[in-house]
Amino acid sequence: MGAIGKPQQAACMKVYKFGGASVRNAAGIRNLVDIVRREPGRLIVVVSAMGKTTNALERVTDAAFRGDVNSALAELSKVREEHYAVIDDLYPCGHILLQNKVEALLQEVVALVRGHDRYADYDRYYDQIVSAGELISTRIVSYALDRDNVSNRYMLMPELLRTDDTFREGRVDMEASALLIRGFIEKNPSQVYVAQGFVGGTANGLRTTLGREGSDYTAAVVANLTDAESVTIWKDVPGILNADPRLFSETTLIEQLTYYDAVELAYSGAQVIHPKTIRPLENKQIPLYVRPFEGYEESGSVITGQTKHPIDVPVYIWRRNQVLLTLRPKDFSFVLEDCLNSLFEVISRHRLKVALIQSSAVTISVSVDNTRRVPAAIAELQRDYRVTFNEGLSLLTVRGTTPEIMERVRATHTILLTQTTRRTARFVVTGEPEKI
Ligand code: ASP
Ligand code: MG
């Protein structure tokens, strides 16, 4: 036995993460099995809910919480059908054991829907329902691996990834989770483990989720806790590109990035990795690979502490769905420090997601994600400030900008605010992200 805290069994582990798009159908799941089979070492496979299941379960939650049980159950039936279609495709002769497992999880959701009036707290209710997506997808993946003789252990993250009770944004208790996860691995030696992304649980046994798109973060946390050798996120893109290929005709793959680069890109709104993902990896200098799910031979991008050369192409990142608030103190106390203090206090209490801050002599402007918490925050700010705001905006960040790029953005967009530093320009513009 190793010393306490030194995970012997967990040594030489790698973490692979597969997102919803990668497991949205039987072909995707077969591809996952192929990728996992090629890995000679030990592996923790972190999986998201299939396709758009999380969105569908959000609709189930909304309807049920409103008391509209019929709509909630109708929505849930669609989720059931989608999953059964995939199971049928994987097992044309049926698979009773797997179907029973999946049905049991769906029945739990049915019970939650019917018992909606026992929940007063929306976020808490949401987590109990929405977490089912990952619990189901991982069952399907685990059985698919088994069938191809990749024996694996199923990790129940509501029991192994301990969080506090900040529902929908559970904060991971790293110490408790380390003991639980390492303990599980030691007691259940296996070459491959399958774990739900995005899902954790409180000490009281309630399920929590870690925030939308949180599976990358799960992968990073698990890698940190098991001292993994690396994390690979398998995606439906070639790696990290300098722009969204849907909005740019010519994109370039960025082969190497530093953790700092990655945080900057993620925070600016790059969809490719979740912003919280980097810290647990940076802390232990664990490299993060982003590789194409459908191009096993391609190496994709790697994020590490240092790279051979800095990124040498301009990088364009959109962050959508912004509200720009501009505050002007009512009492003429234009002391920036005081204003910032009270502003940050409101931001933190309402859990607003800030994308940009800019101050002038008499105003402070903040661009925040337009979540359902924004109106209450505005109402509160209106007590001390005259608040003006615009909705339906997008934030464009251009890293490595040039005078030509600045010109092009100005010519093609309606800009409400521009912020420039040495190499980066940021624009709050009206409307949805569009071609530049
Ligand atoms: N299934 C969750 C979501 O769609 C988590 C994830 O995909 O990372 O937000
Ligand atoms: Mg997803």
Write the layout of secondary structure elements.
Elements: E1 13-18, H1 26-38, E2 42-47, H2 53-66, H3 69-90, H4 96-114, H5 122-130, H6 132-147, E3 152-155, H7 157-160, H8 174-187, E4 192-196, E5 199-201, E6 207-209, H9 215-225, E7 230-235, E8 256-258, H10 259-268, H11 278-283, E9 288-292, E10 301-304, E11 315-329, H12 336-349, E12 354-359, E13 364-369, H13 374-381, E14 385-399, H14 403-412, E15 415-420, E16 424-430
Parallel strand pairs: 1-2, 1-7, 2-4, 3-4, 7-9, 8-10
Antiparallel strand pairs: 5-6, 9-10, 11-13, 11-14, 12-13, 14-16, 15-16
Bound molecules: aspartic acid and magnesium ion.
The site of magnesium ion has 5 residues, from loops.
Quick tags:
alpha/beta, binds aspartic acid, 6-stranded antiparallel sheet, VC0802-like, disordered N terminus, 436 residues, 8-stranded mixed sheet, Carbamate kinase, single chain
What is the name of the CATH architecture of the largest domain? Answer: 3-Layer(aba) Sandwich
H/E series, N to C?
EHEHHHHHEHHEEEHEEHHEEEHEEHEHEE
> How are the strands of the biggest sheet laid out side by side?
3-4-2-1-7-9-10-8
CATH superfamily of the largest domain: Acetylglutamate kinase-like
**Share of β-strand residues:** 15-25%
Which fold name is given in CATH as the topology of the largest domain?
A: Carbamate kinase
